[in-house]
Write a structure and sequence with these properties.
The chain has 357 residues and is an alpha/beta fold. A 5-stranded parallel sheet has the order 3-2-1-7-19, with helices on one face. It has a 5-stranded parallel sheet with strand order 9-15-10-11-12, with helices on one face. The radius of gyration is 21 Å and the shape is globular. It has 2 domains: 195 residues, FAD/NAD(P)-binding domain; 106 residues, FAD/NAD(P)-binding domain (3-Layer(bba) Sandwich).
């Protein structure tokens, strides 16, 4: 059973099918690719198409372009159809448990049993906003970046974007075209070249080799790098500080609280705005997996995606096996490794089955 019908789950399905193994993919979305379609309209991948392929199927069109989020969504839908992957859509998994040697997967009114479970729903699915968000005045419109689609969603008046990493910078620049915009947060640094530029195109191949082969748990260098990289913030790629300045975006320190119903930054500034967009990321969301395979901080314990619990696997997490593991083009290697591990473990071709709830 594969929980999650995005790029990670589909890649595992592809490799299991190549190995002749039976499986089922559960996707909470009504349509394959919807996890990409529902993100903000101007979003693009940071990797070019030739580094965003899943195993067995190339992106069509110019190979050096960075695909849009809708192109990515359509590609995933075409991928599932091309390889006739068994995807059950519209099923959100509520819990995963285990009785002796067989897993039970509860998804609403549906109950499934399986010898193996691959958790491909991602490790950071819970949108995070700080605790003080509910202290903001009720007249202020609040959106998390996962809810933001376009500037027309916001009400008239100034907007504060909280979180200055890539999503915050891109959304702030987009909003600045229609209303006064403030961007709050620590500057995460910038990549040496703008995504999609000529220099970026020249640097991308060696950089990709580094994050997929060198920064990997398969060698001593990567094993030493991994603990440090898990706590790093990705530097700005497409939108640079000078772009924000040119757009009139006002930079502010971190937002740390609320005073008189308005957000307050760490230098004591009260920001009088009508809208707040929280680009504050996501938190680990494995509370629905009722198995003893997590560390005290809630993060899964695994070796290249293979959990200590026999038959349980993780995929799509940052630095699962390498620094490229959470990227579309990097998930294929992890998927092949996990699929082969499953195939070697299985003593039968027993299909995951739906049972009476």
């Amino acid at each position: 059973m594969i929980v999650g019908g995005g790029q990670a789950g589909l890649a595992v399905g592809y490799h299991l099918a190549e190995l002749g193994r039976s499986f089922l993919i559960l996707d909470q979305n009504e349509r394959t690719g919807d996890s990409w379609r529902t993100r903000w309209g101007s979003l693009q991948l940071f990797t070019p198409a030739y580094l965003s392929d899943l195993p067995g199927l190339d992106f069509t069109g110019p190979r050096t372009r960075c695909p849009s989020k809708d192109e990515m969504a359509d590609y995933l839908e075409a991928y599932a159809a091309r390889f006739d992957l068994p995807v059950r859509r519209g099923l959100r998994v509520d819990s995963v448990t285990k009785d002796v040697d067989r897993f039970t997967i509860n998804a609403g009114d549906h109950l499934f049993e399986s010898d193996n479970v691959v958790l491909a729903a991602g490790g950071y699915q819970a949108a995070y906003v700080p605790d003080f968000a509910d202290q903001l005045d009720a007249s202020i419109l609040q959106l998390h970046s996962s809810q933001y689609r376009r500037p027309s969603q916001l009400q008239d008046g100034d907007v504060l974007v909280v979180g200055a990493a890539n999503s915050g910078a891109e959304i702030a620049r987009e909003l600045s075209a229609t209303q006064r915009t403030w961007l709050s947060g620590r500057h995460p640094g910038t990549e040496p070249a703008r995504a999609g530029s000529l220099i970026d195109k020249l640097l991308t191949p060696p950089f990709w080799f580094f994050i997929s082969r060198v920064a990997s748990v398969t060698n001593p260098i990567g094993r030493r790098m991994r603990p440090k990289m898990l706590n790093l913030t990705v530097p700005l790629g497409r939108v640079k500080p000078r772009d924000l300045d040119a757009a009139g975006v006002v930079r502010l320190p971190r937002t740390i609280g609320v005073q008189d119903g308005l957000p307050v930054t760490e230098d004591g500034r009260i920001v009088d705005v009508a809208n707040v967009v929280w680009c504050t990321g996501y938190r680990s969301a494995f509370d629905w997996v009722h198995l003893d395979t997590f560390a005290e901080d809630g993060q899964p314990v695994h070796n290249r995606g293979v959990a200590a619990e026999p038959g349980l696997y993780f995929i799509g997490l940052f630095f699962l096996a390498s620094a490229a593991s959470s990227l579309v083009g990097g998930v294929g290697r992890d998927a092949e490794y996990i699929a082969r591990h499953i195939a070697a473990r299985l003593t039968s071709h027993r299909m995951p089955e739906e049972v009476a709830p």
